[in-house]
Amino acid sequence: MSYVIFFLAAIIAIAGALGVVMLRDPFFSVLSLVCHLIALALLFLLLRAELIAAVQVVVYAGAVMVLYVFVVAYIGDGSERLADRLRRGTVAQPLLRTGALLAGSALLAELLIALTGSGLKAVESAGAPYHKGPRAFGTPAFIGKLLLTRFLLAFEIASFLLLVAAVGAVVLAGRRGREDEEAPPQGAGAPALQGAAGGPPAGGELVEAAR
Amino acid sequence: MMLAPALVGYAEPWWIQIIKSIVIFAVGLQLVPVVLIVERKLLGRFQGRYGPNRVGPYGLLQPLADIIKLLTKEQFRPRTAVGFLFALAPTLSILTAVAAFALIPFGDVQHIFGTRVGLYGVDLSIGPLYLFSFSAIAFYGIMLGGWSSGSKYSFLGAMRAAAQLISYEVSQGLALLGVIISAQTLSLTGIVHAQGGMWYFIPQAVGFLIFLTASFAETNRTPFDVTEADAELVAGYNTEYGGGRFASYYFAEYLNVLVVSGIVTTVFFGGWLMPFGIHPPGWVDPIVVLVKMAIITFLFIWVRATLPRLRYDQIMSLGWKVLLPLASANALLTAIVVVVTH
To answer: Three-state DSSP class for B235?
Structure first.
């Protein structure tokens, strides 16, 4: 039974991950990422890490991905491919490519070091043994204790990082809001003109392309 | 290979688990039409009319008529809809509602047929987190339904649902934190056992009120039903749904009300425990839970009949500026009290 669940979850996870990068419509990309995350939660369950599985679903599928879905559903109408948008973008294409390549290979190297560093010892083992009780492996009590003793520093640094990110987001959003409020009196209708002019050029390009 | 067959340690043999899940599902399934008719009858009374009274004695067969009507309808789909997701979304909603129902404990472990049977679907070490994971997935039921309908009303309803669910899930979780700190366990049966002295709605009154309010929002009930505000959005995220698929959404909504009543009963009103130190025999436990759930459900209907719908910005500011700080303060205060008194 656990084999069936494992392979099912693993296949869904890999298919979901592939779907994220291969699907054309960003909305479906996000949905396949959700599938991927839920499949990962299933794998965590198989490893008797109930809390991690629940957190995986609550935090990633339930909070982070909800925001992704929200944003993509609002502004990603799917009529324009992501690649096209990038091609037209202001960021220089080669710079973006090399940047992505560098970041990707750095992540790969990091993962490989982490994987081979453990010597893949866990592959042959059966995972944590199942104990019944409130403080067994994978329960909230077990992980809570680890977080507040052995991994206290990492835990606190991570939470501090998140706090900084949250404060930064608020500051950025607040600044843009203020600019929007101040802009109309200064520009005296210029933004409206810009907005109105935003449509026609694209149409003009199309017409020219058709000719 | 990587995984040995899991050594699961559930108390019951597999056949009892299967019987149990069927029984609990059947009970949940039967409760939904009861809630439906009670709600319509009560809403009628609250508004000075009779409510449904044509089908069967006292109109009691009205839900049956509704269900037959819905199920025999044509399966309709707008041309702009995304077919696959349009069909999947109501399924997700109903699936998560039923899954969450498994969490509610209807009684302690009993001796039936010579084996020990816990009168609940599952008793997990992660307890409420299981509930929150399924309510996280339930969001996709609403969101995908609204998005894939290809209609602006549905889309707006789904968007409102998204914002509302995220905002109130946080307060809901934090409100439970006070109880969890006091009970020092996440297991729902453990929380019930911890209420032997006093039910948590007295020491955790703030947490209880926040949880209840957030639950109204999470189940999209009035006064938080902007997701299906019929005055502005036709019917919100389920505008384009009809027939069996609409029935699924409808069923899921009422099952969610039952789930939330069950959780409130378990967490704040002592689950199967009776007040004044009465210890009835084990078979009374589920009845006690059901009666308490009925009272909470009545409260849901009462609030629906009494309060007007809140405006969208009012909902957001209530969630973020009132409930969230209150819930955080409540959790913090409870933690301090627990540390000091232990």
So the answer is: coil
